C-alpha cells in the first residue's frame, strides 16, 4: 500500500472527458526540461542546414524546416512553463495551449518541406508541397474554433497530416532516407500512446516529449545526410 502511495506522488488522477490533466510538480518540471534543452540544438541545426545550402531554394527550405523545428520546442517550453505557474496566468495559459497545438501542425508541414521541396516529384505528387500547408491551415482553423472540444478528432487530424504526405515521399525515385523517415514515424506513433496516457502512466507527457525529440532527431539526421550534406536531385514541379 505504501508503494502505491509513493508511486502516485508523481501522477495525478486522470481527468474526465474534455478536461485537461493537471500534472504534478514533478511532471511539470519534466515537461519543461524535456523540450527546453532542445531549443538551442534546433537553432544550431537550422544554422547548419542554412550553411550547407547549395542555392536559395535550399536556404528557404532550411529556414522553413528549422523554424518549424525550433518553434515546436520553444512554444512547447513556454506553454509548459506558463502552465506550471498557472495560478496568475489563466488566459495566457489558454493562449499558449492553443499555440502549443497550432505549432504541431506547422511542425508536421515543416518536417515534410525538405523532402517535398528538394526531391524530384511527379506531376501529381508535387502538389503535396502546398497541400501539406493547406492541411496545416485546416488544423490551425480547428484549434482556433474548436480547441479541446473533440480530442479524438484532433488526434485523427494529427495522424492524417502526419501520414498522408508520407505516401508521396515513399513514392519518390530516390529511396535514401526512407528508413529514417519510417523509424521517426514509428517513434511518433509510440509517442501518441503516451500523449493519450496522462493520469495512467507517470510522466506520460514528458515521455511523449522525449519520443518527439528522438523522432525529430532521426528525421533531422536524414534531412542533413541525404538532402543537405549530399547534393539532392534538383526538382521542378512536373519535371
Ligand atoms: Zn507538451
As a percent range, the share of strand residues is under 5%
- Sequence stretches where pLDDT stays below 50 over 5 or more residues: 234-239
> Whole-number average pLDDT?
86
Structural class: mainly alpha
- Portion in helices: over 70%
Largest sheet: none
When the domains are counted, the total is 1
Which small molecules are bound? zinc ion
Oligomer classification? single chain
Shape: globular
Strands, count: 0
Radius of gyration of CA atoms, rounded to a whole number:
19 Å
Cα distance spanning the termini: 68 Å
Number of separate helices: 9
Succession of helices and strands? HHHHHHHHH
Pfam family, one: HlyIII
Family: Belongs to the ADIPOR family.
Subcellular location: Endomembrane system
GO molecular function, one term: pore-forming activity
Write the layout of secondary structure elements.
Elements: H1 2-8, H2 25-36, H3 39-52, H4 56-84, H5 90-118, H6 128-146, H7 151-170, H8 178-195, H9 204-229
Helix pairs in contact: 2-4, 2-9, 3-4, 4-5, 5-6, 5-7, 5-9, 6-7, 8-9
This protein binds zinc ion.
Amino acid at each position: 500500500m505504501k508503494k502505491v502511495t509513493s508511486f502516485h506522488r508523481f501522477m495525478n488522477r486522470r481527468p474526465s472527458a474534455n478536461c485537461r490533466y493537471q500534472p504534478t510538480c514533478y511532471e511539470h518540471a519534466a515537461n519543461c526540461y524535456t523540450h527546453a534543452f532542445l531549443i538551442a540544438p534546433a537553432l544550431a541545426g537550422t544554422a547548419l542546414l542554412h550553411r550547407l545550402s547549395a542555392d536559395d531554394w535550399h536556404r528557404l527550405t532550411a529556414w522553413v524546416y528549422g523554424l518549424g523545428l525550433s518553434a515546436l520546442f520553444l512554444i512547447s517550453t513556454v506553454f509548459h512553463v506558463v502552465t506550471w505557474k498557472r495560478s496568475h496566468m489563466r488566459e495566457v495559459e489558454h493562449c499558449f495551449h492553443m499555440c502549443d497545438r497550432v505549432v504541431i501542425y506547422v511542425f508536421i508541414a515543416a518536417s515534410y518541406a525538405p523532402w517535398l521541396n528538394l526531391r524530384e516529384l511527379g506531376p501529381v505528387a508535387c502538389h503535396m508541397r502546398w497541400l501539406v500547408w493547406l492541411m496545416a491551415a485546416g488544423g490551425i482553423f480547428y484549434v482556433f474554433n474548436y480547441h479541446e472540444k473533440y480530442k479524438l478528432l484532433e488526434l485523427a487530424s494529427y495522424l492524417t497530416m502526419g501520414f498522408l504526405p508520407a505516401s508521396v515521399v515513399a513514392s519518390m525515385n530516390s529511396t535514401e532516407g526512407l528508413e529514417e523517415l519510417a523509424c521517426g514515424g514509428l517513434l511518433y506513433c509510440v509517442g501518441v500512446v503516451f500523449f493519450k496516457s496522462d493520469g495512467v502512466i507517470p510522466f506520460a507527457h514528458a515521455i511523449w516529449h522525449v519520443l518527439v525529440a528522438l523522432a525529430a532527431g532521426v528525421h533531422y539526421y536524414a534531412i542533413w545526410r541525404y538532402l543537405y550534406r549530399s547534393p539532392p536531385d534538383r526538382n521542378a514541379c512536373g519535371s
